[in-house]
Amino acid sequence: MPASTYLSNPKVMVGTAIGTIVDISDDVVAATLTVTAEALEDTAFGQTSRTMTAGLFSNSLTLTVFASYAASQTYAVLSPLLGTKCTVKVNPTSAADGATNPGFILEGTFLSSIPVINASLGELSQWDIEFQGGLYSVDTTA
C-alpha cells in the first residue's frame, strides 16, 4: 500500500496570464500534465556506456472537458485562447497552494485547436484539449 495517496479532484485554471486565469474545474473530467526533457547524448570517446543530458523541455497538458456553449463555460473561456500563448494551472486538489497541494503551471503554453463540436446521440459531449509547450513551474506558496 502506498505511503501517501490523494483522491483525484484537481483544480484547473486557464487564461491569458496568472492574474487573469479562471477556474474551469466544474467542466473538467480529466487532466494529464506531462513534463519531458529531451535526452541529448553526451557520450565521449573512451566511455563504455552511452550517457545523456537534458536538452529542451517539451511540456504538454491534455484536458478532457464537457462541451458547453453557455456564457463563461468551456467554449466561451477556451475559444479566445485558440492560436495564442496562454497560462494554465492545475492543482491536485481544490485546496490552497502548498507543499502538499502544489500548483503546476505552464506559462506561454500554446492552444492550437478546439474540437468545436463532438457529438454522439444520447451522450454528454466532451472535448480533448491539448496545450503544447510553455515554461513549467511549481507553486507551493499559500
Describe the structure.
The protein has 142 residues and is mostly beta strands. The chain has one domain (16-38, 53-139). It is built from 1 helix and 10 strands. A hairpin with a 6-residue loop joins β1 and β2. The two termini are 30 Å apart. The mean pLDDT is 91.
Could you give the topology of this structure?
Layout: E1 11-15, E2 22-23, E3 28-34, E4 37-41, E5 52-57, E6 60-66, H1 74-78, E7 85-91, E8 103-111, E9 126-132, E10 135-139
Antiparallel strand pairs: 1-2, 1-7, 3-6, 4-5, 6-9, 7-8, 8-9, 8-10
What is the arithmetic mean of pLDDT? 91
Based on Cα principal axes, name the global outline: globular
Largest beta-sheet characterization: 8 strands, antiparallel
Task: Calculate the terminal CA-CA distance, rounded to whole Å.
Answer: 30 Å
How many helices in DSSP terms?
1
- Percent helix among the residues? under 10%
- Number of domains in the coordinates? 1
Helix-strand category: mainly beta
The succession of helices and strands, N to C, reads EEEEEEHEEEE
Using the CA coordinates, give the radius of gyration: 18 Å
Oligomeric state of the chains in view: single chain
List its traits:
single chain, 142 residues, mainly beta, two-stranded antiparallel ribbon, 1 helix, globular
Summarize the structure.
The protein is mainly beta. It has one helix spanning about 75-80, and strands at about 10-15, 20-25, 30-35, 35-40, 50-55, 60-65, 85-90, 105-110, 125-130, 135-140.
